[in-house]
Amino acid sequence: MKYVGIDIGSTASKVVVLDEDKKKILHTKLCPSGWNSRETSEDIRNWLETLDLGEMRIVATGYGRVSVPYADKTVTEITCHAKGALFLNPVDMTVIDIGGQDTKVIVVNNGMVSDFLMNDKCSAGTGKFLEVMANRLGLTLEEMFEYASLGTPVQISSVCTVFAESEIISLMGKGTSREDIASGVVHSIVKKVASLSLKRLENDEVFLTGGFCDSDFIVKELSKELNAHVHTDKKARFAGAIGAAVLG
After folding, report:
1. What is the mean pLDDT of the segment spanning 183-198?
2. Closest listed residue to residue 186, CA positions, set 133, 223, 224
3. How many CB atoms lie within 10 A of CB 90?
4. pTM, whole model, 2 decimals?
5. pLDDT at 140
Protein backbone atom coordinates (compact mmCIF):
# COMPACT_ATOMS: atom_id res chain seq x y z
CA MET A 1 0.00 0.00 0.00
CA LYS A 2 1.26 3.47 -0.92
CA TYR A 3 -0.17 6.61 0.66
CA VAL A 4 -0.89 9.61 -1.54
CA GLY A 5 -1.63 13.15 -0.39
CA ILE A 6 -3.04 15.70 -2.82
CA ASP A 7 -3.17 19.37 -1.84
CA ILE A 8 -5.11 21.41 -4.40
CA GLY A 9 -4.24 24.97 -3.41
CA SER A 10 -5.50 28.25 -4.81
CA THR A 11 -2.30 28.82 -6.77
CA ALA A 12 -0.32 25.57 -6.79
CA SER A 13 -1.16 21.91 -6.34
CA LYS A 14 1.16 19.54 -4.53
CA VAL A 15 1.27 15.74 -4.50
CA VAL A 16 3.26 13.46 -2.22
CA VAL A 17 3.58 9.67 -2.28
CA LEU A 18 4.70 7.95 0.94
CA ASP A 19 5.91 4.38 1.31
CA GLU A 20 3.93 1.65 3.09
CA ASP A 21 5.36 2.67 6.48
CA LYS A 22 4.62 6.38 5.96
CA LYS A 23 8.26 7.08 6.74
CA LYS A 24 9.76 7.92 3.37
CA ILE A 25 8.72 10.30 0.61
CA LEU A 26 8.89 8.37 -2.67
CA HIS A 27 7.58 10.97 -5.13
CA THR A 28 6.53 14.61 -5.19
CA LYS A 29 4.82 16.70 -7.83
CA LEU A 30 4.25 20.47 -7.97
CA CYS A 31 2.04 22.05 -10.63
CA PRO A 32 -0.13 25.14 -11.13
CA SER A 33 -3.73 24.69 -9.98
CA GLY A 34 -4.94 26.51 -13.07
CA TRP A 35 -8.49 27.73 -13.48
CA ASN A 36 -10.16 24.31 -13.15
CA SER A 37 -9.38 22.16 -10.10
CA ARG A 38 -11.14 19.15 -11.61
CA GLU A 39 -8.85 19.20 -14.65
CA THR A 40 -5.82 19.58 -12.38
CA SER A 41 -6.90 16.57 -10.33
CA GLU A 42 -7.29 14.52 -13.51
CA ASP A 43 -3.79 15.49 -14.60
CA ILE A 44 -2.56 14.33 -11.21
CA ARG A 45 -4.40 11.01 -11.56
CA ASN A 46 -2.76 10.46 -14.94
CA TRP A 47 0.65 11.18 -13.43
CA LEU A 48 0.01 8.74 -10.57
CA GLU A 49 -0.92 6.03 -13.08
CA THR A 50 2.46 6.43 -14.78
CA LEU A 51 4.20 5.63 -11.49
CA ASP A 52 2.63 2.14 -11.32
CA LEU A 53 2.31 2.30 -7.53
CA GLY A 54 -0.09 -0.59 -7.12
CA GLU A 55 -2.63 -0.23 -4.32
CA MET A 56 -2.99 3.35 -3.10
CA ARG A 57 -4.79 5.19 -0.34
CA ILE A 58 -5.49 8.76 -1.51
CA VAL A 59 -6.40 11.73 0.70
CA ALA A 60 -7.16 15.20 -0.67
CA THR A 61 -6.92 18.58 1.04
CA GLY A 62 -6.76 22.26 0.11
CA TYR A 63 -9.24 24.61 -1.53
CA GLY A 64 -9.93 22.16 -4.35
CA ARG A 65 -10.13 18.96 -2.31
CA VAL A 66 -13.75 18.39 -3.35
CA SER A 67 -12.53 18.32 -6.97
CA VAL A 68 -10.63 15.07 -6.46
CA PRO A 69 -13.41 12.49 -7.01
CA TYR A 70 -11.05 9.52 -6.79
CA ALA A 71 -9.81 10.44 -3.30
CA ASP A 72 -10.69 7.95 -0.55
CA LYS A 73 -11.37 10.85 1.79
CA THR A 74 -10.84 14.59 2.23
CA VAL A 75 -9.33 16.32 5.26
CA THR A 76 -9.19 20.00 6.24
CA GLU A 77 -6.08 22.06 5.49
CA ILE A 78 -5.34 22.88 9.13
CA THR A 79 -5.12 19.23 10.16
CA CYS A 80 -3.03 18.27 7.12
CA HIS A 81 -0.57 21.16 7.46
CA ALA A 82 -0.04 20.33 11.13
CA LYS A 83 0.60 16.65 10.38
CA GLY A 84 2.89 17.54 7.48
CA ALA A 85 4.90 19.95 9.61
CA LEU A 86 5.25 17.28 12.31
CA PHE A 87 6.53 14.82 9.68
CA LEU A 88 9.29 17.28 8.79
CA ASN A 89 9.87 18.78 12.26
CA PRO A 90 8.54 16.46 15.03
CA VAL A 91 8.35 18.90 17.96
CA ASP A 92 5.84 21.25 19.58
CA MET A 93 5.79 24.38 17.43
CA THR A 94 3.92 27.19 15.77
CA VAL A 95 3.45 26.51 12.07
CA ILE A 96 3.19 29.49 9.73
CA ASP A 97 1.89 28.59 6.27
CA ILE A 98 1.96 31.40 3.71
CA GLY A 99 -0.27 30.26 0.88
CA GLY A 100 -1.48 31.77 -2.34
CA GLN A 101 -4.67 33.27 -0.89
CA ASP A 102 -4.34 32.98 2.88
CA THR A 103 -1.89 32.70 5.74
CA LYS A 104 -2.42 30.07 8.43
CA VAL A 105 -0.91 30.09 11.93
CA ILE A 106 -1.24 26.69 13.59
CA VAL A 107 -0.18 25.89 17.14
CA VAL A 108 0.88 22.25 17.56
CA ASN A 109 1.24 20.74 21.03
CA ASN A 110 1.73 17.05 21.85
CA GLY A 111 1.26 16.13 18.21
CA MET A 112 -2.15 17.81 17.95
CA VAL A 113 -3.54 21.18 16.81
CA SER A 114 -4.28 23.21 19.93
CA ASP A 115 -5.11 26.52 18.23
CA PHE A 116 -5.07 28.18 14.82
CA LEU A 117 -5.78 31.45 13.04
CA MET A 118 -6.29 32.35 9.37
CA ASN A 119 -6.44 35.61 7.42
CA ASP A 120 -8.69 34.39 4.61
CA LYS A 121 -10.45 37.76 4.21
CA CYS A 122 -7.70 39.55 2.27
CA SER A 123 -4.80 38.44 0.10
CA ALA A 124 -2.37 40.98 1.63
CA GLY A 125 0.43 39.03 3.28
CA THR A 126 0.09 36.08 0.88
CA GLY A 127 1.61 34.71 -2.29
CA LYS A 128 -1.02 36.38 -4.45
CA PHE A 129 -0.05 39.79 -3.05
CA LEU A 130 3.59 39.18 -3.96
CA GLU A 131 2.64 37.84 -7.40
CA VAL A 132 0.59 40.94 -8.24
CA MET A 133 3.37 43.27 -7.11
CA ALA A 134 6.08 41.30 -8.91
CA ASN A 135 4.07 41.48 -12.14
CA ARG A 136 3.71 45.24 -11.74
CA LEU A 137 7.50 45.54 -11.31
CA GLY A 138 8.22 43.21 -14.22
CA LEU A 139 9.94 40.65 -12.01
CA THR A 140 9.61 36.93 -11.36
CA LEU A 141 8.95 35.84 -7.77
CA GLU A 142 12.57 34.68 -7.46
CA GLU A 143 13.84 38.02 -8.77
CA MET A 144 11.52 39.81 -6.33
CA PHE A 145 13.41 38.35 -3.36
CA GLU A 146 16.77 39.09 -4.98
CA TYR A 147 15.86 42.73 -5.58
CA ALA A 148 14.34 43.05 -2.10
CA SER A 149 17.57 41.86 -0.46
CA LEU A 150 19.46 44.67 -2.24
CA GLY A 151 17.08 47.53 -1.47
CA THR A 152 16.08 49.80 1.38
CA PRO A 153 12.38 49.23 2.09
CA VAL A 154 9.97 52.02 1.27
CA GLN A 155 6.74 52.02 3.22
CA ILE A 156 3.74 50.32 1.63
CA SER A 157 0.92 51.54 3.84
CA SER A 158 -2.12 50.03 2.13
CA VAL A 159 -3.44 46.74 3.49
CA CYS A 160 -5.47 46.15 0.33
CA THR A 161 -3.75 44.57 -2.69
CA VAL A 162 -5.48 46.91 -5.15
CA PHE A 163 -4.55 50.07 -3.24
CA ALA A 164 -1.02 48.79 -2.59
CA GLU A 165 -0.59 48.31 -6.34
CA SER A 166 -1.62 51.94 -6.83
CA GLU A 167 1.02 52.96 -4.29
CA ILE A 168 3.65 51.06 -6.25
CA ILE A 169 2.62 52.71 -9.50
CA SER A 170 3.00 56.08 -7.76
CA LEU A 171 6.45 55.14 -6.45
CA MET A 172 7.51 53.99 -9.91
CA GLY A 173 6.37 57.34 -11.29
CA LYS A 174 8.59 59.12 -8.78
CA GLY A 175 11.60 57.13 -9.93
CA THR A 176 11.96 54.96 -6.83
CA SER A 177 14.26 52.03 -7.56
CA ARG A 178 12.84 48.57 -8.11
CA GLU A 179 15.12 47.29 -5.34
CA ASP A 180 13.59 49.67 -2.79
CA ILE A 181 10.02 48.98 -3.93
CA ALA A 182 10.60 45.21 -3.90
CA SER A 183 12.07 45.49 -0.42
CA GLY A 184 9.05 47.49 0.71
CA VAL A 185 6.65 44.90 -0.69
CA VAL A 186 8.42 41.95 0.93
CA HIS A 187 8.71 43.73 4.27
CA SER A 188 5.01 44.59 4.06
CA ILE A 189 4.21 40.89 3.71
CA VAL A 190 6.56 39.96 6.55
CA LYS A 191 4.99 42.52 8.88
CA LYS A 192 1.45 41.32 8.10
CA VAL A 193 2.40 37.68 8.62
CA ALA A 194 4.25 38.50 11.85
CA SER A 195 1.33 40.54 13.16
CA LEU A 196 -1.00 37.59 12.62
CA SER A 197 1.48 35.09 14.02
CA LEU A 198 2.15 37.01 17.24
CA LYS A 199 -1.52 36.57 18.17
CA ARG A 200 -0.92 32.81 18.50
CA LEU A 201 2.84 32.44 18.98
CA GLU A 202 3.39 30.23 22.04
CA ASN A 203 7.09 29.34 21.86
CA ASP A 204 10.29 30.07 19.98
CA GLU A 205 9.94 27.01 17.75
CA VAL A 206 8.51 28.44 14.54
CA PHE A 207 8.25 26.38 11.34
CA LEU A 208 7.53 27.99 7.97
CA THR A 209 5.63 26.10 5.28
CA GLY A 210 4.14 27.16 1.96
CA GLY A 211 5.59 28.66 -1.18
CA PHE A 212 7.85 31.15 0.63
CA CYS A 213 9.84 28.48 2.47
CA ASP A 214 12.43 28.50 -0.34
CA SER A 215 13.31 32.13 0.31
CA ASP A 216 16.20 32.62 2.73
CA PHE A 217 15.37 36.33 2.72
CA ILE A 218 11.80 35.76 3.93
CA VAL A 219 13.02 33.34 6.63
CA LYS A 220 15.63 35.84 7.83
CA GLU A 221 13.26 38.82 7.89
CA LEU A 222 10.44 36.88 9.54
CA SER A 223 12.87 35.69 12.21
CA LYS A 224 13.77 39.32 12.93
CA GLU A 225 10.16 40.45 13.06
CA LEU A 226 9.10 37.62 15.39
CA ASN A 227 12.31 37.75 17.45
CA ALA A 228 12.51 33.98 17.04
CA HIS A 229 14.50 31.61 14.87
CA VAL A 230 12.23 30.48 12.05
CA HIS A 231 12.95 26.97 10.77
CA THR A 232 11.91 25.47 7.47
CA ASP A 233 12.67 22.50 5.21
CA LYS A 234 13.21 22.06 1.49
CA LYS A 235 10.02 19.94 1.41
CA ALA A 236 8.00 22.38 3.56
CA ARG A 237 5.91 23.65 0.64
CA PHE A 238 4.56 20.07 0.42
CA ALA A 239 3.46 20.05 4.09
CA GLY A 240 -0.27 19.92 3.30
CA ALA A 241 0.16 17.02 0.89
CA ILE A 242 2.52 15.21 3.27
CA GLY A 243 -0.02 15.54 6.07
CA ALA A 244 -2.80 14.25 3.83
CA ALA A 245 -0.69 11.19 2.94
CA VAL A 246 0.12 10.57 6.61
CA LEU A 247 -3.60 10.68 7.42
CA GLY A 248 -4.28 8.06 4.76
Report:
1. 91
2. 133
3. 10
4. 0.90
5. 92
